[in-house]
Specification:
Elements: E1 2-6, H1 14-24, E2 30-34, H2 40-52, H3 56-77, H4 81-100, H5 108-115, H6 117-132, E3 137-139, H7 156-169, E4 175-179, E5 182-184, E6 190-192, H8 198-209, E7 213-218, E8 239-241, H9 242-250, H10 262-267, E9 271-275, E10 284-287, E11 295-310, H11 320-330, E12 335-341, E13 344-349, H12 355-362, E14 367-381, H13 390-397, E15 403-408, E16 414-420, H14 424-436
The chain binds aspartic acid (ASP) and magnesium ion.
Residues 7-8, 35-36, 41, 118, 180-181, 195-198 line the site of aspartic acid.
Length: 437
C-alpha cells in the first residue's frame, strides 16, 4: 500500500482539492494524508493567541471570518444539495466548537485542540467530495491511532496496532483519508507533531504499514541540485540517499524536514517528492540507495561565524579539543564544521547569542580570531573516500573563490566549504556550471 501526503497549498482551494482527488483516484489502495488548507493553521494560531491575551472579541472576529471562508469553499466544492448540507453541518459544528473556547479558561490544552481543527476540516471536505463523486473511500481519524509516548516521541508500536485496527474496521476501501499533524500524547490528550508535521505523519504511517512508498506532494518538482533563488538553470535531482537529503535539508533546502523522514529511513521505505502542478514530472526519490560515483546537489547555509583558536600548547597535547568544545557546550552553542591542524582548530557556529562569552573563555587557551558573515556551501553525493577525483572536481569549481575552511570525511556523502557570504552567489553558480551544466 502507498501513502500519499498533500500539503496546505495542494488542498488550498476547492479547485485544488479536486485536482488532488484526480491524483489519488486510480484503483490502487492507499492512505492519503492531508494538511489543513493553506493559511488555516496560521489563523487558528492567531485565534489561540487572542484567547491567551484574554481578547475573546478578537478571537470571535477571526473565527467568524474563517468560517465565512469555509462556507464559500463548501458552496463551491459540491454539486449536490445533500453533500453541501452535510458538509455545512460539519463546518458549523466545528466553528461552534471553536467559539466555545472563547468562554472558558484557556491553556496549552485548549490551544492544541484549536490548532488541530484545520486538518479535521480539510479531510472532512475531501472525503465528502469523494463520497459525493462515488469513490470507494472513508475517513480514518488520526486521533484514533497517531500517538506520542512519555518522551514526546512517536509511539510506533501503538500507531501500528491502532492503525491496523482502523484499516480492518473499514476493510475493502480503496482510499483511506486521514489528518496530518494531529495526534494524541501519552495521556490521551490532543496534541500535534509540530508545525509542518504532516510530513512526519506520512512517514510514520508509511513505517507503520510497511508501505511500498511514501509520496510527498508539494508545489515544486522535487529537490533541486542548487538554490534556484541564486542560481540559473537548476534541475530537480532524480534520486537522493536519505543522508544526502538530510544534509541538504539542514543546509538550506526547505522542502523536507530531516527528522520527519527518520521513520521512513529506518523502515527503508522510499520517499518521493512530487509536484501537484506537474504530476507527470519524475520528482525526487529519497531512499537508502547511493547512486554510485555521482555528485548530486549543492546547498548553502547563511549567517555563519568562524572561530579560530591557535596555541603552541596544542602541539602534541591531548585534551585540548575537549577543553575547547566544552566551552561551546557550556553556552549551548552547536558547532557545524570543524577543521584542525597541529597547532590550531577552526570551528563554525550559526548561533551568535553567546559569542562574546565564548570568545572570552577561549582566550584562556590560545589566540582567537573571528570571521563573521560567512556561509557554508555543502556539496552532497557519493563522496566515499575510495573514489578518486571527486574532491578535486569540487575544489576545482571553486578555484576563484577564497575558501576559509574545508570539511571532508565526516560522512560518505558530503564535502563542505566555508566562504564569505559575499561570495555565496558566485560560488553556487560556479559549482552548478562545473558539476552539473
Ligand atoms: N497544518 C500544519 C501546519 O501548517 C501541518 C502541516 O501543514 O504540515 O503547520
Ligand atoms: Mg507543510
Amino acid at each position: 500500500m502507498k501513502v500519499m501526503k498533500f500539503g496546505g497549498t495542494s488542498v488550498g482551494s476547492p479547485q485544488r482539492m479536486k485536482e488532488v482527488v484526480k491524483l489519488i483516484s486510480d484503483n490502487e489502495q492507499k492512505i492519503v494524508v492531508l494538511s489543513a488548507m493553506s493559511g488555516t493553521t496560521n489563523t487558528l494560531v492567531e485565534i489561540a493567541d487572542y484567547l491567551y491575551k484574554k481578547n475573546p472579541e478578537g478571537a470571535n472576529e477571526t473565527i467568524n471570518a474563517l468560517e465565512a471562508k469555509y462556507k464559500r469553499h463548501v458552496a463551491e466544492l459540491y454539486s449536490t444539495e445533500e453533500y453541501r448540507e452535510r458538509t455545512l453541518d460539519f463546518v458549523k459544528q466545528e466553528f461552534d466548537y471553536l467559539r466555545s473556547f472563547t468562554k472558558g479558561i484557556f491553556t496549552m490544552f485548549e490551544e492544541k485542540i484549536i490548532v488541530g481543527q484545520g486538518e479535521l476540516l480539510s479531510t472532512n471536505m475531501v472525503t465528502n467530495y469523494m463520497l459525493e463523486q462515488g469513490y470507494n473511500t472513508c475517513l480514518i481519524p488520526a486521533l484514533e491511532f497517531m500517538r506520542t509516548d512519555k518522551n514526546a516521541e512517536p509511539d510506533l508500536e501503538y500507531i501500528r496496532e491502532k492503525l491496523q485496527a482502523q484499516l480492518e474496521e473499514h476493510e475493502g476501501k480503496t482510499i483511506y483519508i486521514t489528518q496530518g499533524f494531529i495526534c494524541r500524547n501519552a495521556y490521551g490528550e490532543v496534541d500535534n507533531l509540530q508545525r509542518g508535521g504532516s510530513d512526519y505523519t506520512a512517514s510514520l504511517i508509511g513505517a507503520a504499514i510497511d508501505a511500498s512508498e511514501i509520496q510527498i506532494w508539494t508545489d515544486i518538482d522535487g529537490m533541486h541540485n542548487n538554490d534556484p533563488r541564486f542560481v540559473e538553470k537548476t534541475q530537480p535531482v532524480s534520486q537522493l540517499h536519505f543522508e544526502e537529503a538530510a544534509e541538504l535539508a539542514y543546509f538550506g533546502a526547505k522542502i523536507l524536514h530531516p527528522t520527519c523522514v527518520q521513520p521512513a529511513k529506518f523502515a527503508g521505505i522510499p520517499v518521493k517528492l512530487l509536484n501537484t502542478m506537474d504530476p507527470a514530472a519524475p520528482g525526487t526519490v529519497i531512499s537508502n540507495d547511493t547512486e554510485y560515483r555521482k555528485i548530486k546537489a549543492v546547498a548553502a547555509k547563511d549567517n555563519i561565524t568562524a572561530i579560530n583558536i591557535t596555541s603552541s600548547r596544542m602541539l602534541l597535547a591531548y585534551g585540548f579539543l575537549r577543553k575547547v568544545f566544552e566551552i561551546f557546550e557550556t553556552y549551548k552553542t552547536s558547532i557545524d564544521m570543524v577543521c584542525t591542524s597541529e597547532v590550531g582548530v577552526s570551528v563554525s557556529i550559526d548561533n551568535k547569542t553567546h559569542l562574546t562569552q565564548i570568545l572570552n573563555e577561549l582566550k584562556k587557551f590560545g589566540t582567537v580570531k573571528v570571521d563573521e558573515d560567512m556561509c557554508i556551501i555543502c556539496v552532497v553525493g557519493d563522496l566515499d573516500w575510495q573514489n578518486v577525483g571527486f574532491e578535486s572536481r569540487v575544489t576545482e569549481a571553486l578555484h576563484e573563490i577564497p575558501v576559509r575552511m574545508i570539511s571532508y570525511g565526516g560522512s560518505n556523502h558530503n564535502i563542505s566549504f566555508l566562504i564569505s557570504a559575499n561570495d555565496k552567489k558566485r560560488a553556487l553558480q560556479a559549482l552548478s556550471d562545473h558539476l552539473f551544466n
